[in-house]
Each structure stands twice: as C-alpha cells, then as structure tokens.
Design brief:
About 40% of the residues are buried. This protein has one domain: Glutaredoxin (3-Layer(aba) Sandwich). Helices cover about 30% and strands about 25% of the residues. The model has no long low-confidence stretch (mean pLDDT about 95). It has about 170 residues and is an alpha+beta fold. The strands form two sheets. The protein has a seven-stranded mixed beta sheet. A two-stranded antiparallel ribbon has the order 6-7. The protein is globular, with a radius of gyration of 15 Å.
Length: about 170
C-alpha cells in the first residue's frame, strides 16, 4: 500500500555523491549514505523517482524539468530536491553529471530498493528486461510529512513533473 498525504515518510538510507565542481566526468567516487530522516527533519523537500537513469522519459523530460525548476522550487521554500532511482549511487552520480545537474539536485540511488518498497512504490518491469523498478512519482515532504504525492498512472510525466509539484506549493 502506497503512502498518502499526511503520512510520515519511512526512514531509509539512499546512496549519493555530493556535488564537487572540480570532479572530472570520468571520476568515480564512492557514494555516501543519505539518511532520509536525518537529512530531511525540519526541512521542506521534493523527492521524485525515475524508473531508470539514461532512459528516454527520465533523460529528456523528468530530470531536465526539475533542473529547470530548481530555482523556482527553492523560491517556494524547498530546501532539498532529491531524485532517486532503484539503482546504485554510482549510476546516479554518473547520470547527474551527464544531465548537467551541477549540484541542483541530490542524485540518489536506492540500490536494494528498501526505501522504495517501504513507500509502496515499486513496479515489476521484468517483461521489458528491467527487473524491479520504482514507479515514477514526485512528492513534497515537509518535516517528514507528505503534503503532495503524484504517482504516474501510466507511462509519461504528468503528475510527477516539476510543474505539477510547483502548482502544489
């Protein structure tokens, strides 16, 4: 069962690599732990999930939309923007670099899917050879409480888009 508005997000640990403007595109630093409750307690955050880095909708629409909207989200009180995927932190770091992220978004991996499962937002993409993935979604979390959640009912980026999130702030 997926969480709903008013619920407290579960605690969990993601993997991320902090942005370093001096890091080369080829660098492969070890990811650090992103402890969700520790990092987001007392903050307003947007967490959005992509089913797969380097896939068309994620690369061409979902992540670029949040990169373009990062300043507008911050102007509306968002302290952290977290993009997550059910993949490791190494891949999310590389995806962030290729996407031109430059530290606007925390690119985090949920390698074992523990957090995504706790959210109730996994999907089975084994027919397409992709295994278990995260559903595409976006949520606004204020001091660990969900104030908006948009889970895509079908392929595409609508209720989980940066514009949809901005409209709810």
């Amino acid at each position: 069962m997926a969480l709903k508005v008013g619920d407290t997000i579960p605690d969990g640990i993601l993997q991320y690599v902090p942005y370093d403007p001096n890091e080369s595109l080829e660098a492969c630093p070890r990811p650090l732990q992103y402890k969700i409750h520790e990092k987001l307690k007392g903050k307003k955050a947007v967490i959005f999930a992509i089913p797969g880095p380097f896939t068309p909708a994620c690369s061409e629409n979902h992540v670029p939309g949040f990169l373009r909207a990062a300043d507008s989200l911050q102007a509306k009180g968002v302290n952290e923007i977290v993009c997550m995927s059910l993949i490791d932190g190494f891949v999310m770091n590389a995806f962030g670099k290729v996407s031109g992220n430059k530290g606007k978004i925390i690119m985090a991996g949920d390698g074992n899917g523990t957090f995504t499962k706790a959210l109730g937002l996994t999907m089975d993409a084994t027919k397409g050879g992709l295994g278990i993935r995260s559903k595409r979604f976006a949520m606004v979390v204020d001091d660990l409480k969900i104030t908006y959640i948009g889970v895509e009912p079908a392929p595409g980026v609508t209720v989980s888009s940066a514009d949809a999130v901005l409209a709810k702030l």
